[in-house]
Amino acid sequence: MLDLLARDTWTEEECRWLLHYLEHTPGTELRGYLLERFRRQGITVPDSALQARLLDRIHERIRPQGETPVVPLRRRPWKTAAAAAVIAAIAGGAWFFTQPSGKQPQQLAKQATPADRKDVLPGGNKARLVLANGRTVSLEQAAEGRISGDGERVNKEDDGLVYEPSTHSGINKLITPNGGQYRVQLADGTIVWLNAASCLQYPASFNGSDRTVALTGEAYFEVAQDASKPFFVKVNGMTVQVLGTSFNVNAYPEEKSFTTTLLQGAVRVVAGKRQTTLAPGEQSVLEQHSGSLRRAAADTEDAVAWKNGILTFRNDELAAVMRDISRWYDVEIIYAAGIDEKIHVTGAMRKQEQLSQALKILELTAELHFSVQGRTVTVSK
């Protein structure tokens, strides 16, 4: 999420996406996400009566007489007081949000109405498991219960896979497609959330002197404590040595850099002869082109927003934003002539949005036009 409340002014684009959510977005995930950020910055949420009055005043300022929202905002900065009022109304206004919380994307997809069926639905819990014997299991189709595989003790449960310790240490693979995500509890108790278009390789049980897994794509780890067996994540020329518990690794091959963001504990990131040790609230950035490795302050909520049901963009290049959209909605992105893929985009959206709604939010923030033909999205002005 943006550190907007610390600024003197808000940009037009920032106001646009906030107002869009205020008036059009159901659900509670974004509300909870914003609310936590406001509490950390000492923002007091007004009571419902004041929220209503603030909202009326905001609408009077931004909507010409007789027109309905959402309308383009004037080309001028907005003062913090008005912007904070918008945010406070969102954060405190549970009465604006009607979608029950806790539902997974695939559950919402099942409720789509006939009018929605031409739209592209969001991703959900989709993955395939490759066992050590080479057998592949589609986890969407597999029934809950034990998945047998020459000694692997793995169960499919409602919220993902759960491994039990065993004598079998054959390598398994969990692979998510575009439009997929999945959760797995490894045999040592470590929990991994795997993002779309990602692959995690790991032994069915950790019977050696260490615990080593390999990752392509993005995953969030909560590592079980075991001082006698260090935990390592191998990522295409980079190793994350876990000295603590909770961290996120973003290592898509098509991105410019690999980032490791630490929430709790400590990790050491090693890339060739370079290494750095992170403290909570820091991240390492490994540039793929130059091989440079640096440490920086991190916004941990942004780093793991994907796991909590939010797609968030903080001054990111358009091309990177559209790659996120492509991975989550399993669509192809095409750019019309004259589109600058390096322009920067700021905003946030729920991962439960259907594609048309997600693109509408981007149109409001980036002043671009998106057209959809089947599973192809064309970006134009």
Fold and architecture overview:
With 381 residues, this protein is α+β, with helices and mostly antiparallel strands. The chain folds into three domains: 4-96, no CATH class; 124-303, Jelly Rolls; 309-380, Phage tail protein beta-alpha-beta fold. It has helices at residues 12-24, 29-40, 48-62, 80-92, 105-110, 300-303, 318-329, 355-366; strands at 9-10, 78-79, 124-125, 128-130, 136-138, 145-147, 154-157, 160-163, 171-176, 180-185, 191-194, 198-203, 211-222, 231-235, 238-242, 246-251, 257-262, 267-271, 274-278, 282-287, 293-297, 310-317, 332-335, 344-350, 369-373, 376-380. A hairpin with a 5-residue loop joins strand 4 (128-130) and strand 5. The longest helix has 15 residues, at 48-62. Mean pLDDT is 78; it is low at 1-10, 24-28 and 61-117. One of its GO terms (molecular function) is sigma factor antagonist activity. Residues 174-268 form the FecR protein domain. Pfam families: FecR, FecR_C. Residues 311-379 form the Protein FecR C-terminal domain.
What number of domains? 3
Largest sheet: 19 strands, mixed
- Level-1 CATH class name of the largest domain: Mainly Beta
Helical region count? 8
Rg, Å, rounded:
22 Å
Oligomer: single chain
- Derived from helix and strand composition plus strand pairing, the structural class reads alpha+beta
CATH architecture descriptor text of the largest domain: Sandwich
Mean pLDDT: 78
Low-confidence stretches: 1-10, 24-28, 61-117
Tell me the number of strands.
Answer: 26
Measured as a percent range, the helix fraction is 10-25%
Strand content: 25-35%
CATH topology of the largest domain: Jelly Rolls
How far apart are the termini?
A: 26 Å
Identify the overall geometry: globular
